[in-house]
Design a protein that fits this description.
By secondary structure, this protein is an alpha+beta fold. The chain is built from 5 helices and 12 strands. 25% of the residues lie in helices and 35% in strands.
Length: 221
C-alpha cells in the first residue's frame, strides 16, 4: 500500500519530517481499524494474543499483538520508545543509539538485536525513524526503517515496515494500579536466507516475550 512512498526514505530527507509522520500515523490507523475477520491467531498466552495477516508492504506478515499492562500510557510508552529505559529491559535488544533528534517526538535510532532460535536467525541491525504522538486518551509510538549507508559488517541489516504501538487507558483506569491496553503492529523483514517457518516462530514468540519483559520492568521500577 505504501511501498513506493515509505520504503525509500533516506536520512537526508528527514529534516522536515511532518509529511512522513502524517503518512506513518495514517498507515498505523488503517491497521488499527482492520476488521477482526482479517486476522488469524498466530500464538496465544494467558494474557497476550498475537495475530497475523499477509503484509501489503513485503512478502511476509503483518503481526498484531494485544494485552493489558498495569500502568498508565505515558509511563508504558516511555519504556517502549527510544530513550533511557528500552535497552535495560528488552531482552532481544543488544544496543541502541539515537543517531539524530528531529522535531519533538521524532528521532532516528540505530539498534541491534540478539540471535534467535539457536542463532538460526543471526543478530540484526536496524536504522529506524521513530515518532510518538497523542492518540485518544493515550499515545501512539510508531516507526519505519530508513536508508543509511553505514553498516556494521557483523550484522545483517533488517528492515521494519510501518510498525507501532497504541497504548490507551482502560475505562476503569482510575483504579490502583492504573491499567492500559497495549496493541502493537509489527512487520519486520529480517532479510537473509532464513526459513519462513523460523521467521514466523520467532516473530510470534518475540511479541509474547516483549509483554513479559515490559511488565516485569514496570513492576520493578
Amino acid at each position: 500500500m505504501f511501498e513506493v512512498v515509505l520504503n525509500r526514505i533516506k536520512m537526508g530527507t528527514l529534516q522536515e519530517p511532518s509529511a512522513l509522520t502524517a503518512r506513518l500515523q495514517n498507515t498505523l490507523m488503517s491497521y488499527h481499524s482492520l476488521d477482526e475477520n482479517e486476522w488469524r491467531v498466530a500464538k496465544k498466552s494467558k494474557d497476550v494474543t498475537v495475530w497475523r495477516k499477509s503484509s501489503e508492504e513485503f512478502r511476509g506478515y503483518l503481526y498484531k499483538s494485544q494485552g493489558m499492562v498495569d500502568d498508565n500510557p505515558n509511563r508504558i510508552v516511555d519504556y517502549i520508545r527510544p530513550g533511557p529505559y528500552r535497552l535495560d529491559w528488552d531482552s532481544l535488544m543488544t544496543a541502541m543509539d539515537i543517531i539524530e533528534t528531529l522535531d519533538q517526538g521524532c528521532c532516528v535510532m540505530r539498534y541491534t538485536t540478539a540471535g534467535q532460535l539457536w542463532n538460526i536467525i543471526a543478530p540484526r541491525e536496524f536504522i529506524d525513524f521513530s515518532y510518538t504522538t497523542d492518540y485518544q486518551d493515550g499515545l501512539l509510538s510508531c516507526g519505519i526503517s530508513v536508508e543509511h549507508e553505514e553498516q556494521h559488517q557483523s550484522y545483517v541489516r533488517g528492515f521494519n515496515h510501518p510498525c507501532g504501538w497504541f497504548c490507551v487507558p482502560t475505562p476503569d483506569s482510575t483504579t490502583t494500579p492504573a491499567q492500559s491496553l497495549l496493541t502493537g503492529y509489527i512487520q519486520t523483514d529480517l532479510r537473509g536466507m532464513i526459513p519462513q517457518s523460523a521467521v514466523d516462530t520467532a516473530m510470534a514468540s518475540t511479541l509474547i516475550n516483549f509483554y513479559t519483559d515490559l511488565r516485569r520492568a514496570l513492576k520493578k521500577a
